[in-house]
Amino acid sequence: MKFKDLATTDINTLLDMLLDLGKSDGVAEIRTDAVALELALFGDHPAISAKFVMMDDAVAGFVIYSWKWGTFTGVRDMYMQAIYVRPEFRRQGLGLTIMQHLASIAVDEGCSRIEWLTVKDKQMSKEFYDSIGAVEASHMMVRRVQGDALRKLAGL
Fold first, then answer.
1. How many separate domains does the chain show?
2. Beta strands 58-69 and 114-115: pairing type?
3. Which residues span the domain enclosing 139?
4. E-assigned strands of the chain?
5. Closest Cα to residue 98, out of 78, 73, 72, 122?
6. Which of 24, 40, 59, 146 has a CA positioned 20 to 30 A from the CA of residue 31?
7. What is the pLDDT of residue 123?
């Protein structure tokens, strides 16, 4: 098992797995496409970093992450955008290996934490995250403005 940095030739493979993840998470509308991914990863101002998890020559999964700034810690933190292991590679310890790799990057970058969102009703994910010591930020809630509400707020 090894990690591979993505190249522009990997965009369609990543997109296929993102679509699989979206379906399994119950995402109603998936608008990400190859152009958006390529821009986010390789544009003038990359918004995300991504790695493939390789088993021999097969892509077993991926992780996408970005950086945020800790308002109260005063240091950069890692934000895990998405983690995915293809069904045929699950239950082999890849999820733990991915999280260990991310933790190593975060520590090397001086981060105080890794944060992410998770689907509430996915018990297997909850158990996995509990097993690695992740805690639910019970003092926080996710709020979002999107669609018509976003345009209205922007005065459009």
1. 1
2. unpaired
3. 2-153
4. 2-5, 49-55, 58-69, 76-85, 114-115
5. 78
6. 59
7. 82
CA contacts within 13 A on the Cβ side of 101: 21
pTM above 0.70, yes or no: yes
As a whole number of angstroms, the distance between CA 137 and CA 36 comes to 30
- Encoded tokens for 68: 């945020």
pLDDT tens-digit readout, 70-124 = 888 899 999 999 999 999 999 999 999 999 999 999 999 999 999 998 888 888 8
* CATH number of the domain bearing residue 109: 3.40.630.30
Q: Are 82 and 18 in contact (CB under 8 A)?
A: yes
Q: How many helices (H) and strands (E) does the chain have?
A: 5, 5
